[in-house]
Structure prediction request, 644 residues.
Amino acid sequence: MSGADPIRLYRTVRLIRRFEERAIELVRSGDIVGGIHPYLGQEGIAAGVCAALRPDDVVAGTHRGHGHVLAKGADPGRMMAELCGRVTGLNRGRGGSMHAADFAVGVLGANAIVGAGGAIVTGAVWARRRRGEDLVGVSFLGDGAVNEGMLLEAFNLAAIWRVPVLFVCENNGYATTMPVADAVAGSISARAEAFGIRASTVDGQDPAIVHAATAAALGRMRADGGPEFLEARTFRFDAHHTFEHAVRLDYRSPEEVARGRSRDPVQIAGSRLPDAERAAVDADVEAVLEAAVAQALAAPEPDPATALEYLYASGLTARTGGG
Amino acid sequence: MPRLSYRKALNRALADELARDEEVFLLGEDIRVAASAVTAGLLKRFGPERVRDTPLSEQAFTSFATGAALVGARPVVEFQIPALLFLVFEQIVNHAHKFPLMTGGQCAVPVTYLVPGSGSRTGWAGQHSDHPYSLFVHAGVTTVVPATPADAYGLLVSAIRCDDPVVVFAPAAAMELRAEVSDPAPVPLGRGRVHRTGDDVTVVAVGHLVHDALAVADELAGEVSVEVFDPRTLYPFDWDGLLASVARTGRLVVVDDSNRSCGIAGEVIATVVEQVRLHAPPRRVTRPDGAVLPFAPALDRAVQPGRELLRQAIAHVSKDG
Ligand SMILES: Cc1ncc(C[n+]2csc(CCOP(=O)(O)OP(=O)(O)O)c2C)c(N)n1
Ligand SMILES: [Mg+2]
Prediction:
């Protein structure tokens, strides 16, 4: 398999896995309010895709976005602080799980609205290429997003204007509880092909496969400019959202979950490392996350008097709500 | 003095900003051939990269503009029909407007949304005659409704230079106006203008209705001395300017082309009465609640705020107290 450093791939999937597990603990302890959409089981996609990107490339994530933000290079400590709503967070505690962004590393933001990121990243890539930069963009999206008209419009714009955006569909089989088979007429990749966008489907559980497919697509995209589409088949190991830990929703059988969990990206990537190297990565990730959680919990909460800070970039101040 | 049409003023503002700043570009439907005339001549001068015709994909091209703005561009998006703003309300309010706060100040979204021909177009019926500026005021998006050619030029220039999203409504009923404008200049956002001073009652008029208010004020001269206040920017509103006017006149009428409930007229009255003891209860002249403009011209006019209702409202507030 081409190019990707197996240690780096393993480190990223392991980092995301343990980040999510630590975050779920913090949801349970009440340190993260509002819950999260865990990326558990899908780590191979963010790891494989982002390993093929350059630092100046940009990505737009989803509501299930922690993996994208971490894999693109955001600091886990500041990410965890964001989930905990602290001033040291990536968004200074103003965004939380579903809006985490780090413009400094090219993360234009997770986005809580399904299907919204595609047009945004297309515009960002187009505007920077107009200045002569040769970057590309990635729009992560779920299988649910392929039924959103706005996203299909974005496919069309990117194709007609030849904007190099890789649309990465993380097909985990469900939009919340809605199975793909009940929701998607035709096929997912045919949506992209209808716009003349080259599409391929890969095993999203193996970050090396995802990386190879991404690197091939980006090579073509950087050369001739147009968008491509990558469907990565995956399985969500945990809840749609942590609220599901308290409210059991009946849509996946235990057998289906067991089958899905049997192909674990952490094991797949980890099995490619010698035991000692794998143990060293694990220890390093544990240390990073130990520090991340400690820093997040030690950081101050924002001052309520600053609740409207950053509302207007122009410096406009809003009237407050009092009598 | 040179005469400038309202439409030409918008065109000039676009041309001047395209020439001044490489990061400005235009997006919209049929703007290369300038179907609305507002972009006339711009394709030839600035080329198709900066005057971009879009497919009919309002939601995507509105968010495309957001993405471009996130990395430093200053897009101007033209909408052919005011109702298209309903289609992209989510993209403007939920994304463009919210990104700066949600990212903790990591970005700005300097996009201008331009609607040439807002409000009734006479004979274009229910789906082409909306004037939804109050929706954007409610959402906290900077909103301007220029009444004159000079303000059309000056406010559009300031909108493009503003670091926040700005919606510019150019009322259909004002688009054909011409005025002497010697030297078009930027007009600051958030600053109203007293078009005519008066002592007895302040009439706040929005957009094209400024001209109706001025006509009524002329007619009534000698009976009632009417001050006409044009906020120009509805959000942020020039409360200081308005309160100074009302503090002198002590009477208030608002004429506003919004539907009545939650329109800007209601906000103006609420804010004034929170701070000023008026001599008489204030009045507003608006579209009816839930208005849908009917097709037949007499019906279309019947639903719009007009001069007769304005005269009645002025008579009411002048009598009371
Ligand atoms: C436009 C929109 N509709 C509905 C929702 C509520 N919602 C949040 S996530 C989700 C499911 C999304 O499914 P998918 O795109 O497959 O992503 P996944 O959750 O499986 O990662 C829904 C319906 C939303 N956030 N945005
Ligand atoms: Mg899904």
In short: The two ends of chain B are 45 Å apart (CA to CA). The pocket of thiamine diphosphate (ligand 1) is lined by residues A 63-64, 112-115, 142-145, 172, 174-176, 240 (CB under 6 Å). The longest helix of chain B spans residues 6-20.
